[in-house]
């Protein structure tokens, strides 16, 4: 039995029939070929699969695809325009806030969610917002600096 | 220098921040089949019967294999494993059979239908027990296995390598020493936890050629192992490693690829894919070996260490094809970075019925330094020296000798020590460690040194090719893998420096054994040094070709030409110049003819003059390519009510020879510190009768952003004579001193020695209670 769902992903309207036990992550990666969101654990423990659902960060491995019906989803692929990176993406590059890059899409989406809700977070708020995103490479410091760079820019705007 | 030494942005940055980079699990090939694996429920058992009939007849199943399909033994240093178990299973989780099917669900259902009959055997679940004469034998056929000449297995026992150092006369020195002290330590198994789990796809073409996409550190090593395992010529195997989501050693050598090949062989041209679950990653890929250490030290009243006797017993797990070399490294590094005249070391690799031990960032050095660096502090306390002074006195200096008797020409250890002492205000009287401390909290600080050399066969090779394009851009081809450490960027910087072509005009291509040239492995902190040398040589080769053509073009002798900002320029008359791009495809003559053709530079490299050590004594002049030295110091805070330990500050200093990219190396050290911190205070693979009890991130915690201390990172630059631009590796050394520095800080704070990792809140509380009794 499949369920017909309608949602937008990265501003594009999608209609899809999905089986009830498919996760949002599986749908995004397998049916929509958006492989930016990664599976690091499949159990809500690593944050590599983080996407925005109605502006809130969500572990896509824990949400069912059918629950996406009527929702607005943004993945890491939805941040840059044709010609320009999102300023948080650019900040990650400029601050060397990525190494292997496997946690990076999830990390950026958690950072983005925070900045959308609070454009000028403090270091403590940033550390807290990414505490559910595991990174084995960077030691987190440069990730925090990258997000803080955007925060400080926003404060000066 | 224009490009080397600058913080160039990562060349793979845009692909990674946009999610565009395709890792192996992101690849979607037409008509892919999915694999699932039947695994052993027992740590040690004889396989009596494997019944695959039901699985084979399940609709959607395309191939089922058992150990019969992969009976050749393989292994990097000791050929002791088969990709699927044949006669016995030797750890819980070992692959016994595998299925390829139309969907993951069908593959899993088919695996459940496979019936295996076992005769359960007594298991070895402790390395020390495994040494006893009556211990069950994990590998009764050890005597038949092939192995490299630098390893010493003892058939008829569970010992797969017994590495010895015999330097000076330790017994005599103990008799004459003012004090003789013995301390024991234990380091448990841990797991690498790359956020990307292992993933691979294999496909066999009708002409018998095989393609493998694998998230691996070493495509050429994978190719070689598969060639041996399946009797295939190397020119029929293509291994691609498109991107690697973290390795830390866990993706060195081979793991799951060998399971996919026989499936692909039976699947008639269809790709077969397998991606490990997190639980698989914890249990069925490499883990870091456990280690029991005993160190006996002879020391004089003035603080001079005169002798050590080390016994390191390593829990190698079910297969030690790779682990034997970790044990060797632990042997020749067994004094730590100290100059000691009399050394007796036994470093022993023991087969157990535990998950397979393998390379893990540090390659034995983290494990032995946890023991060595606490021991040094314990000695200091006994003699009444400060932890700094005992290291000043005994730590290696230029001209000193290490455990193998090698004389060290370059050695920045003491400079790194002084650097950290300074950064942490260690010897400043007015520095208040307890500033702003809350009730029920105590603070302490600790220091530890460390060193590491690339542990690899002496003659392992690297190569690079640089191709110049007619618009002045270039392609750099190597098989060094960027597993996050930033090698793509650093190698491009080196090429840019030699050729004076800006980094953004150089595209690097890696990881395809059909198209990128040979690289032994991306391991051992050797890429900046080894692949870097190959890249420099390739670019110098290209430069030489350019000079040849330019001297004709400009009528200026080669010796009077130089490269400058994408031009070949006369040193005497700078207006005489020709652009590199004009010569990229050869020199066009005025009569319309041409000479030479495209400029393609090639570079090959093997570390020079590295030789085997003496078999009996372990002594040798140059057993490794180079040593990297460093020091870390920490400030910690402990809650005496809960036992919770927080690392507040870490200062780190390493002698890296030459910093190629300041921003990237800083990030690498920060990551190493957190990984070291995790292994110090949380991480342990809990093994109960061979069963891994905590194969997930809830029960096996790795550091999060909440655990991040303040980090002060600095570098010393004493050039490595044979290094590219003077550089040496630092990827692994940077996590080596962190755990013992934390352990030493715990002692400073509480007067308690915790000699087993991890230093958990429970252990601290228990020790506090004992102490206050
Ligand atoms: S994959 Fe979703 S939290 Fe780890
Ligand atoms: S960059 Fe590798 S896991 Fe974060």
Strand order of the largest sheet of chain B: 3-5-1-12-9-10-11
Note the total helix count of chain A.
Answer: 5
Task: Tell me which CATH architecture of the largest domain in chain A applies here.
Answer: Roll
CA radius of gyration of chain A is 15 Å
Strand line-up of the largest beta sheet of chain A = 2-1-5-3-4
Query: CATH first level of the largest domain in chain B: which class?
Result: Alpha Beta
Low-confidence segments of chain A, given as residue ranges, are: none
Determine the structural class of chain A based on helices, strands and strand pairing.
alpha+beta
CATH fold-level name of the largest domain in chain A:
Ubiquitin-like (UB roll)
Helix content of chain B: 25-40%
The main sheet of chain B comes to: 7 strands, mixed
Class derived from helix and strand content of chain B: alpha+beta
- Mean pLDDT of chain A, to the nearest integer, reads 98
CATH superfamily of the largest domain in chain A: Beta-grasp domain
CATH architectural grouping of the largest domain in chain B: 2-Layer Sandwich
Task: Describe it.
- The complex is a heterodimer of chains A (157) and B (773).
- By secondary structure, chain A is of the alpha+beta class.
- Chain A has two domains: 74 residues, Ubiquitin-like (UB roll); 69 residues, [2Fe-2S]-binding domain (DNA polymerase, domain 1), CATH 1.10.150.
- Helix content of chain A is 33%, strand content 16%.
- Chain A has a five-stranded mixed sheet, with helices on one face.
- In chain A, helix 2 packs across helix 5 and helix 3 packs parallel to helix 5.
- The longest helix of chain A has 15 residues.
- The radius of gyration of chain A is 15 Å and the shape is globular.
- The model of chain A has no long low-confidence stretch (mean pLDDT 98).
- Chain B is of the alpha+beta class and 773 residues long.
- Chain B contains 18 helices and 30 strands.
- In chain B, 60% of the residues are buried.
- The model of chain B has no long low-confidence stretch (mean pLDDT 97).
- Chains A and B meet through helix 2, helix 3 and helix 5 of A and helix 1 and helix 16 of B.
- One FE2/S2 (inorganic) cluster sits at the interface of chains A and B.
- The site of one FE2/S2 (inorganic) cluster has 12 residues of chain A, from loops.
